[in-house]
């Protein structure tokens, strides 16, 4: 069974604390990644942030001569189970389900297993089922929609585990760091993550300064983005904060 390499948890937690919007901006402005967002999947329940290395599942169009099992027939041929088996605390599962709206890739029981193993969240470019029960679990879930159908009932089947996938046409390499919150889902190439934390943390800091000035009636032209005058004031504020 294929597994992934996992980055240090403190690196993942630092990215999660920064948030998807700032990460997407800094990946674009500073690191040359034009569009890191997995478009389509939305949070099943608002108010959650989940981040971790990606376990990946690739789905393909169904061809009955190769795969025609019913829901509970030959469970070990059903690869959506296999992507969950290696789960370690903090992992994210990312599924290229081809945007299909008639296949419930996971249901309550599978997601309960994932939560019980300490998984952080699931991102599906497609659907899950048992949505009310899934929303009550202590994991984050981002999906296009929900359905009563099981995973291989209609148009697609799970095809490969822990391979590079095109989730909503965004490349996800197994082990990439996924950060998901109410704004959406961002893919962070693991090799870029340490530098991204450094750059994005400074962004978060100057926005904290700007927010305080704007809330007090400060000039938007001065404080967002920082003008040269605002930059000088920010540097002095930062120096005072460090003291």
TrEMBL record:
One of its GO terms (molecular function) is metal ion binding. Pfam families: RraA-like. Gene3D superfamilies: Ribonuclease E inhibitor RraA/RraA-like. Keywords: Magnesium, Metal-binding. SUPFAM superfamilies: RraA-like. InterPro entries: RraA/RraA-like, RraA/RraA-like_sf. Mg(2+) binds at residue 130. Its cofactor is a divalent metal cation; Mg(2+). CDD domains: RraA_family. Substrate binds at residues 107-110, 129. The keyword Metal-binding applies. This is Putative 4-hydroxy-4-methyl-2-oxoglutarate aldolase.
């Amino acid at each position: 069974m294929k597994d992934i390499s996992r980055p240090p948890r403190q690196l993942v937690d630092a990215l999660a604390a920064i948030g998807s919007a700032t990460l997407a901006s800094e990946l674009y402005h500073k690191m040359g990644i034009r569009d890191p967002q997995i478009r389509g999947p939305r949070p099943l329940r608002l108010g959650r942030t989940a981040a971790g290395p990606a376990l990946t599942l690739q789905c393909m169009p169904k061809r009955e001569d190769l795969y025609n099992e019913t829901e509970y027939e030959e469970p070990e041929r059903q690869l959506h189970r296999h992507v969950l088996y290696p789960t370690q605390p903090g992992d994210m599962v990312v599924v290229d389900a081809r945007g299909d709206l008639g296949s419930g890739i996971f249901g309550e029981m599978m997601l309960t297993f994932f939560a019980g193993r300490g998984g952080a969240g699931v991102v599906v470019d497609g659907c899950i089922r048992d949505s009310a029960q899934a929303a009550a679990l202590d994991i984050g879930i981002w999906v296009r929609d929900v359905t009563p159908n099981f995973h291989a009932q209609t148009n697609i089947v799970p095809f490969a585990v822990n391979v590079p996938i095109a989730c909503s046409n965004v490349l996800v390499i197994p082990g990439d760091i996924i950060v998901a919150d109410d704004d959406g889902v961002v893919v962070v190439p693991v090799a870029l993550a340490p530098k991204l934390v450094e750059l994005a943390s400074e962004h978060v800091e100057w926005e904290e300064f700007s927010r305080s000035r704007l809330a007090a009636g400060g000039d938007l032209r001065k404080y967002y983005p920082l003008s040269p005058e605002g930059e000088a004031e920010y540097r002095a504020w930062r120096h005072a904060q460090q003291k």
